[in-house]
Write a structure and sequence with these properties.
Layout (H helix, E strand, L loop, with lengths): L7 H9 L5 H14 L4 E4 L1 H17 L10 E5 L26 H8 L3 E6 L47 H8 L5 E6 L5 H6 L3 E4 L19 E6 L2 H11 L16 E5 H4 L6 H16 L3 E5 L2 H13 L2 H14 L9 H9 L5 H22 L3 E5 L8 H6 L1 H12 L2 H6 L4 E8 L5 E7 L5 H16 L1
Helix pairs in contact: 2-3, 10-13, 11-12
């Protein structure tokens, strides 16, 4: 694939026209994946070539299965792929190969997509930074300079955290290995790596997808989704993972769309200057495009953040319950110490806090729906840009602090099961990416997606 973004839908169209050989493309993807550093945990080379050859035969006979037939795709190593172990980013799970594909994998294969392999992640998907001591950490790659005269800072070329937990999926797309990759999101694990790598992601409402064949972290919070370079790719593949043909969605009419810019998030001193300034600039561009931008505090967002601060993270309690037997068994010492420490900390979470969070969750979901009243919420995706990697690896306490700060804003949509779209919003002085998030009430995915398509078009025009 060329260095410039080559989207999944563009690849599919080129294959349909006979302008691109899916077998040659697949070989190129496999070569790049093999040459990459810590991006993939395993490759499915034989399967990929068989699927690509089958696509080539369908192209010759005029029987392609749809707009994504022959398009390469990578999967976070939480998804079962028949004949491969699902490691969940560690050394203690997945000791035997999966017998069958996860349902989402099966649906994409049925649409002709080509499975390249399984990407790296934080062990059991339990961190927003993407570090992995077992398979290495895929490095976040800064964007290219727009000019040879552009200022070059002291820190801009130092390795950065890739974002997690879907680190390998994001880096695989950012490095042009595949046009799109699949991840999961429990507290921000799609949106954070997309934000750090200048990509697009879509966190669906949980009920939108089957998670059959996906290793869990926190059952009431986990969802699956896509990371790509365009929202159109994310949505086409999301439809495919549900077993549907990709829908053609009309973007919302800007003049009929209200976007609420949460002033509470922008006024928060924990939001970096670059993130805030770039969000304001994007809001101004959306207003110029015709969207109605309303700046005000959204009480349900503030109350959700306060509930998490007071009671703790619900996902921590669910993750501890999920992996308690592992923590108490002989394999615990083989886990990433950072992950093990975070799981152990949840052991002390008071039962009344857990129950309070479940109760508050339902009330806050209702309040958000009432507050927005058909509008779309606009916030930062993450309060800061990708942090330097070396200090995170060297200091466990620093890692813990930065991890919580990284996930703080994205946890809101996760707790409220809000559909959310992360879009690039700009860069800071070190050429690091910033990101904005558009979200809506639980279950109102299609309304959100129409607004997000319109906003994405306005911001990239």
């Amino acid at each position: 694939m060329p260095a410039q973004p080559f989207t999944a839908l563009a690849i599919g169209e080129a294959i349909r026209r006979g302008e691109l050989d899916p077998v040659a493309l697949t070989r190129q993807c496999l070569t790049r994946a093999t040459d990459s550093d810590a991006v993939f945990i395993s490759l499915t080379e034989q399967r990929a070539l068989v699927e690509a050859e089958a696509c080539a035969q369908r192209q010759r006979s005029g029987t392609l299965r749809g707009p994504l037939d022959g398009v390469p795709l990578a999967w976070k190593d939480l998804f079962d792929i028949a004949g491969t172990a699902t490691t969940a980013g560690g050394k203690v799970l997945g000791k035997t190969p999966a017998e069958r594909d996860a349902e989402a994998v099966r649906h994409t294969a049925g649409a002709g997509m080509v499975c390249i392999g399984k990407t790296n992640l934080t062990e059991i998907a339990y961190s927003g930074l993407g570090l992995n001591p077992h398979y290495g950490t895929p490095h976040h790659t800064p964007p290219p300079t727009s000019s040879e005269h552009e200022h070059e800072s002291r820190n801009e070329n130092e390795p950065r955290a890739p974002g997690g937990s879907s680190s390998g999926s994001a880096v695989a797309v950012a490095q042009g290995i595949v046009p799109a990759a699949i991840g999961t999101d429990t507290a921000g694990s799609l949106r954070v790596p997309a934000a750090f790598n200048g990509l697009v992601s879509y966190r669906p409402s949980q009920a939108r997808h089957s998670r059959l064949g996906v290793t869990p972290l926190a059952d009431s919070l986990d969802t699956i989704g896509v990371i790509a370079s365009t929202l159109e790719d994310c949505l086409a593949i999301d439809d495919t993972m549900r077993g549907s043909a990709p829908l053609v969605r009309a973007a919302a009419v800007p003049e009929q769309s209200v976007i609420v810019l949460d002033a509470g998030c922008l006024d928060d001193p924990r939001v970096s200057r670059a993130v805030g300034d770039n969000l304001e600039a994007c809001a101004s561009r959306l207003k110029d495009a015709g969207f109605h931008i309303v700046r005000r505090r959204v009480a349900s967002v503030a109350d959700t953040l306060e509930a998490i601060t007071r009671h703790g993270w619900l996902g921590a309690a669910e993750a501890y319950t999920e992996y308690r037997a592992l923590l108490e068994g002989p394999d615990a010492e083989a886990m990433d110490p950072r992950v093990r420490k975070r799981l152990e900390a949840a052991r002390q979470m008071p039962p009344d806090s857990v129950v309070s969070l479940y109760r508050l969750r339902q009330a806050l979901k209702t309040r958000l729906r009432e507050e927005l009243a058909g509008a779309t919420l606009l916030t930062p995706t993450v309060a800061h840009v990708a942090p330097l990697l070396a200090p995170l690896e060297a200091d466990p306490e620093h890692f813990s602090e930065v991890n919580l700060a990284t996930l703080r804003l994205s946890m809101v949509a996760s707790l409220l099961d809000s559909p959310a779209v992360a879009l690039p919003s700009g860069r800071d002085d070190d050429r690091q990416h910033t990101s904005l998030q558009l979200s809506g009430p639980c279950g109102e995915d299609e309304a959100l997606l129409r607004v997000a398509l319109g906003a994405s078009s306005a911001l990239t025009a």
